[in-house]
Amino acid sequence: MRTFCELTFDNLNEKLVMSLIRAKPRTNIVASEVLVRMPLCKLASVAKGDAKVELMTALGYKDNASLIGYYAGLKRAIKTMLITDLTLAHRIFVNYTTEIDPKFITYSIENYGIKVDKIGFNFPKAAISHINNLISSITYRRIKNIVDESDINKQTQMIIITAAHFKGTWEFPFDLRLTKLTKFQRIDGKVIRIPMMSKNYQFQHVENSDCQAVSMHFGSWRASFTIILPNSQQQLPQLLDKIYNEKAYVHNLVKSMKGRFVKVTFPRFKIKTFVDWTGFVKELGLNSIFNSTSSGLDGIFKNSSKSIALNKIKQKVFIQIDEVGVARFARLDFAGPEEPSQGPMPNFVALPQFTADRPFYFDISLDFETARYQMFTGVYYGPEETPTNVNEFHF
């Protein structure tokens, strides 16, 4: 059950995706707060009055420079992801009119990472067909039917649409020959056997009384995959509550990690999640931008006497994690120097074990010296179907 969360500073970052995870217990989920934040930064840049206050508070910013600065800090890392691992369709669709200020459209991708398109919502069926065909084409048909007849009508003024497919390519791939059918304990106590990949290597690792966690590098610049594993198959709900309620719990856990040789074993998996964020962001306190009579977004128009409001925020995310990913590629020139190779430990050395054989929390992040951006966040409770051999679920 979803609960109301009072508007507080930076609560979009702290609460949005975790609110979704808590609303759908025992469900595999992956979603992106980053891809919701980017278009909201764009709207905040033109917002006024209560809408401006609500947006800046939820986003955690005190000045307009931070709105552009957010994407500026991520731009190179996201562009590197887009080379192989990430396919992204990211749009603000506004009802077609000549009254839209060209400044709202110009440099939107460069400054905010989001494209603004004009579309005729006066013809709902045509608009739905156009948006679905566009998103399907951009994502190579991996993500389809992101909007339907309940989303768009003749009164629709503006919607935000995000579709993302991510298939992570490891910095150093896992050996396919080491993937084995391994026992996985579901949260209900049932034990199944699923393909799990394994690797002995030096990873960032930490353990405490609640959980243990490991972080692994993708080949894409600054990108990492982190698993937080509760100490038993029944403790994930309590761990999720702690992540939701304790400020910066995941960030602090990752900061406490140390490099050590560990035998890491976890499932290869895929998760696809569709979410309508509209109700969630309203519960976080963002209400004015949805008010059709006083949204505070009239700065979108040349003539401030006109009004426009946001109607929907919809997102579909599809991720795939396996032994290799999309491709092997060299780091780009701007990615900085290579990290020193640490090589695997000999097989005869007894290593600490990290075995994700029960439900876990994970994220795919972009890690910098002064900030950590959770590009995708999710939970894995086990496959929706049980494979009968190790080759099933291999992408």
Total count of domains:
2
In whole angstroms, the N-to-C terminal distance is 34 Å
- Roughly how many Å is the radius of gyration? 22 Å
Order of helices and strands: HEHHHEHHEHEEEEEHHEEHEEEE
Task: Provide a quick synopsis of the model.
The chain is α+β, with helices and mostly antiparallel strands. The protein contains ten helices and 14 strands.
Describe the fold and architecture:
This protein is an alpha+beta fold and 395 residues long. It has two domains: 11-167 and 271-318, Antithrombin, subunit I, domain 2 (Antithrombin, Chain I, domain 2); 176-268 and 345-380, Alpha-1-antitrypsin, domain 1. Helix content is 26%, strand content 29%. The strands form two sheets. Strands 1, 5, 6, 7, 8, 9, 12, 13 and 14 form a nine-stranded mixed β-sheet that branches. Strands 3-2-4-11-10 form a five-stranded mixed β-sheet, sandwiched between helices. Mean pLDDT is 91; it is low at 329-342 and 391-395. Pfam families: Serpin.
Topology:
Elements: H1 11-23, E1 29-31, H2 34-44, H3 49-59, H4 65-84, E2 86-95, H5 102-105, H6 108-112, E3 115-119, H7 124-138, E4 158-167, E5 180-185, E6 191-207, E7 211-217, E8 223-230, H8 236-245, H9 249-255, E9 258-267, E10 269-276, H10 278-283, E11 312-321, E12 353-355, E13 360-367, E14 372-380
